[in-house]
Amino acid sequence: MAKAVFQSFDEKADPAHGASRVAALRAELVRRGLDGFVIPRTDEHQNEYVAPAYERLAWLTGFTGSWGLAIVLTKEAAIFVDGRYTVQVREQVDVAVFAPQHLIDAPPEGWLEKRLKPGQKLGYDPNLHTHDGVKRLERACTAAGATLVPTDANLVDAIWTERPAPPIEPVTLHPLEYAGEPASAKLDRVRARLAELGDAALVITDPHAMAWTFNIRGGDVSHTPLPLGYAIVPREGRPSLYLEACKLSNEVRSTLEDMADVRDPGQLDRSLQSLGAAKLKVRFDAATASRRLVAVVEKAGGTPDVGVCPVALLKAVKNGAEIEGSRAAHRRDGAAMANFLAWFAREAPRGGQTEISAVEALEGFRRDTGALADVSFPSISGAGPNSAIPHYRVTERSNRPIEPGIFLIDSGGQYRDGTTDITRTMAVGEPTAEMRDRFTRVLQGHIAIATAVFPKGTSGAQLDSFARRPLWEAGLDFDHGTGHGIGSYLSVHEGPQRLSKLGTTPLEPGMMLSNEPGYYKGGAFGIRIENLILVEPRDIPGAEREMYGFETLSFTPIDLALVEPSLLTDAELDWLNAYHAKVRAIIGPMVGGDTAVWLDQATRPISR
Questions:
Q1: In whole angstroms, what is the distance from residue 400 CA to residue 422 CA?
Q2: Looking at the predicted structure, is the pLDDT value of residue 183 above 80?
Q3: Pick the CATH number of 172-316 from 3.40.350.10, 3.40.50.410, 3.40.190.10, 3.20.20.80
Q4: What is the pLDDT of residue 179?
Q5: Boundaries of CATH 3.40.350.10 in the chain?
Q6: With 0-12 CB in 10 A as exposed, 13-18 as middle and 19+ as buried, what is 11?
Q7: What digits encode the pLDDT tens for the residues 205-254?
Q8: Which residue, 294, 334, 476, 499, has most beta carbons within 10 Å?
Q9: b/e code 353-377 from CB counts within 10 Å (16+ = b)
């Protein structure tokens, strides 16, 4: 079996170093006259995935989750995580050094208010905190009589003697056949939005927004084809791009210089100072702009306008080429998934397979397409009780054998024409009645989203409960959102659109999201069924309002062994059979041999 190329299973967490590294950090606090320091799990762009050079939280604490924050004071320390990581954090962190805290139940600000003393100084790296994030910390410090102090360098960097070098991967051009719109047209739309907002310029701090606007991609971040850098788009005049020169080939530089001034990132502050000195109103992205950059414009005399980045909504609504590219990517990915599931159905009952071998097999089938650029995130491959951990990451140490029960795999591929994300839950051996009941309720929620029809202006928050009702009726629920946005050969998690209690952005045709309700019985098994969906107009005779619905983009069989037909309504049963007929029609011609035989059986019509 081929080994995984795009992900590793090394155990990166090592809680054994926690005590010595915190002791070194506390010595640095004393040297700088500080009483504490805040360490977020992010880089200066607030990326979900960060390069090794910016994994400061993991290096200090051992925690490797995608979101977290630590606070180290002179006498105690804490690490804050959300509900996804409450189990993981205790496995990876020395809890005698860092007290795990739930982000919602015990937010960092409240924790600080209770522990800081009057006159104390709390340090933070202004490159790693947003404008609003700093305001929250300032309020906490003020309430305690303490002071929040920006540092001129990151204190973790000062003690991290073997810190990896920052990434300098090549920037590539994203072809028009995939982008669907030239960068010049995108810049015109951004300028039009700036005029509506009354802003003189936009500072692009989100690399996803920069990549989309200028039709470029890169490799500075794992699993997401991002170049790290910045851009400034004035309402009038040429934009500026701030990229390391060593990342640019002659061809790429020439293409970019046709539409923008290409500058060294070290010149960004000078450009921001010029905007401020001209007394201009400058737009910053509230989600990704660091406090330090906002302060440069403010100090120079400008007016920072911190809010939603205009590019975010433009990027979220996919054009025709991006939609067709996603459809092609999902057909290709669906064939790889069919090959994998046929392999799994054959090999899992024989024994000898593990969570890691399943990941390696699936990546191999995706690589066999000849089009895989990367996986879109490290595959979540959970057997038995590990399937009940929504964001589980398998390592050599945690790797479980695949045995009778439940197996869940959440994975995706990065293809030049689209990004995929799909979850399937399979039974190994005969599932219990409880497993079938829970799986079918999750399926009913999935179908409710897939078949939803809703008026223009509806947000994801209004639809989120559709996926939960079948579980609620049995006194059950799940603790994550029902769906997130998807990029086009960009991030597998894209905003602002989402199916979630927090999803307030109205859904528009062209937006792509995931549809992934789940159920998790801690220590036993977990279930999730995920397809990607596309918002599209719905023509309803006699409708008095503009109506929308979803097109399902993913084509992969749903395990019928876990379905309890008696729980399904006639409409739900019809949806499942129609979906499987479409999977068979689209994927069938793309596979052969044992997979074709398996696919016919896996997509057979069922009845009560």
A1: 21
A2: yes
A3: 3.40.350.10
A4: 98
A5: 15-159, 172-316
A6: middle
A7: 999 999 999 999 999 999 999 999 999 999 999 999 999 999 999 999 99
A8: 499
A9: bbbbbbbbbbbbbbbebebbbbbbb
